Fold:
Amino acid sequence: MRFKIENEIVMLEIQNEEDLWYLSLVINEGDTIVSDVFRRTERKSDSIRNKKTEREKMSIKLKVETIEFLELSQRIHVVGVIVDGPEEVIGEHQSINIENETILRIIPANTETFIKRIEESLAFNSVAVPVLSVDDKTISLYSVNESNDEIVWKIDSGEGKMYEGKEEDHRQELLGLLEKYKKSTIYVIGPSIFRDSISKFLSQNKFSAINTDVSASEEEGIRELLQSGTVNLRRSEESKLVAEFLKKLNSELATYGTAKVNEALDLKAVSVLLITDKFFRERRSSTFLQKCELGGCRAFVVHGSWETGRMINSFGGIAALLRYRLPQ
Structure:
């Protein structure tokens, strides 16, 4: 996502589906969207019988009342009241759909907070990350982005011979397949005996290869890589935080549910507040978020439709990592 400010209007370039999801959390009731819309207008002739309606394009400003993220169709549905535009439509309700690869023009009710939240999203990578999975049978390249893990290609590694340097043809084939990624950072995962060899080989051939500590390969290895927080994706940060929450439950350095989290926030014991996007959109979330800000903790919204989000949802939609154990 890219943005710039012209006068009071924030111009946002929506580049992918993750941008849409994140914007659905940032746009608030009371913000004003500047947009062109089509509305039916009444045309009257001399005779009442000849009255007819036509759809006419007009520029309006819409004060936001409700925001809904439609995951299946990948768009944001906004309903609000027209506060500026042709005189005959001011005060009427209008809906707008915000879609991928469009420009959104918005006048935030609180510009400072709005820009701060947009800048937080820009801290993460907006492009897919190449992950090379290696084991004793295959080498696979995955394109990992905020939404999924797409396999790009898979080749037979020759029962480990490629790693021993016995099959030069296989290695040259690998270099050819990876040529287009020479300017990218490639993350290598898999058992160390194979991972170390391939990482060294790629580095010797001027590739930027990171030899990770991930010993699993393919999908399991990608899951482990994301949980490590090594990859600069929001999805990776989410996986890491949820894994940390689950790990700390047994040591009582994490808690969940509205009552316990509220107590921890009152004691300023929360370091990270985890809430699902569904919980975030509920009015009661504002109380928790305000307490989080006052207590100097970090708030992180997780995707309710992802595995990580479903986990937090099973704990009531709200959880917290703690600075110290709560008093009994």
DSSP finds eleven helices and 16 strands in the chain. The chain has a mean pLDDT of 90. The longest helix spans residues 234-248.
